[in-house]
């Protein structure tokens, strides 16, 4: 019991100071990448340059979706030094997570944009809006409402996946649990406690997700 009590606050502190900021930073960067990738895939543009960019985007998505996140993070932190590129643990973890989120979330964003009826695009063009104006003012709010549930689930999964950052020596919550368990050689109670702490934070995120969905529904209804 003393071991469990002594391990609780260090794990919570690591979650608040490292795991959550790591997830937020990775998700923001990943979403910027995801929106850019999704727009490339849905924009009706021709020409050889666009086809090359589209091919690169498809290869990127295929590689990220076809390899484990653990491998991706390890390549960034342990593999790039072989090319003379050295990245600190936290930036390496953010890069790995962001690339992963960018690929997966781009499919969610693309599907959300495609779910908006084509008549909405035509309505924007009719009143003189450009492609980007129509997207920003008409399409994006509707697509965002559709995308909130899956993207919220993606963020919650990302928060749990920050435990993989322990592989690149980031002292996030799970690495703290590992350190506490290694000192006592009593792994089961510490790992169960770590799971419960993750669960508690996820319940908070579930509540925030539900609140965002309700607010977005009211915004679109107006």
UniProtKB/TrEMBL annotation:
Coiled coil: none annotated. Pfam families: BPD_transp_1. GO terms for molecular function: transmembrane transporter activity. It is a multi-pass membrane protein. Its main location: membrane. Keywords: Amino-acid transport, Cell membrane, Membrane, Transmembrane, Transmembrane helix, Transport. One of its GO terms (biological process) is amino acid transport. The chain crosses the membrane at residues 12-39, 45-63, 75-99, 188-208. One of its GO terms (cellular component) is ATP-binding cassette (ABC) transporter complex. Residues 16-209 form the ABC transmembrane type-1 domain. PROSITE patterns: ABC_TM1. It comes from the Bacteria. The keyword Cell membrane applies. InterPro entries: AA_ABC_transptr_permease_3TM, ArtM/GltK/GlnP/TcyL/YhdX-like, MetI-like, MetI-like_sf. Belongs to the binding-protein-dependent transport system permease family. HisMQ subfamily. This is Amino acid ABC transporter membrane protein (PAAT family).
């Amino acid at each position: 019991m003393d071991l469990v009590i002594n391990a609780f606050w260090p794990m919570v502190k690591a979650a608040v100071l490292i795991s959550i900021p790591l997830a937020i930073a990775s998700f923001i960067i990943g979403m910027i990448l995801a929106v850019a990738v999704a727009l490339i895939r849905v924009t009706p543009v021709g020409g050889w340059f666009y086809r090359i960019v589209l091919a690169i985007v498809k290869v990127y998505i295929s590689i990220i979706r076809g390899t484990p996140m653990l491998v991706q993070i390890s390549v960034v932190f342990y593999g790039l030094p072989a090319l003379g590129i050295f990245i600190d643990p936290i930036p390496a973890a953010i890069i790995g997570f962001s690339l992963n989120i960018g690929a997966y979330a781009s499919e969610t964003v693309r599907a959300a944009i495609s779910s908006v009826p084509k008549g909405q695009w035509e309505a924007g063009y009719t009143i003189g809006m450009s492609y980007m104006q129509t997207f920003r003012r008409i399409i994006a709010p509707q697509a965002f409402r559709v995308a909130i549930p899956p993207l919220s689930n993606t963020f919650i999964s990302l928060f749990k996946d920050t435990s993989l950052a322990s592989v690149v020596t980031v002292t996030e919550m799970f690495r703290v649990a590992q350190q506490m368990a290694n000192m006592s050689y009593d792994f089961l109670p510490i790992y169960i406690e770590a799971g419960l702490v993750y669960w508690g934070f996820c319940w908070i995120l579930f509540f925030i997700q539900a609140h965002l969905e309700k607010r977005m529904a009211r915004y679109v209804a107006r």
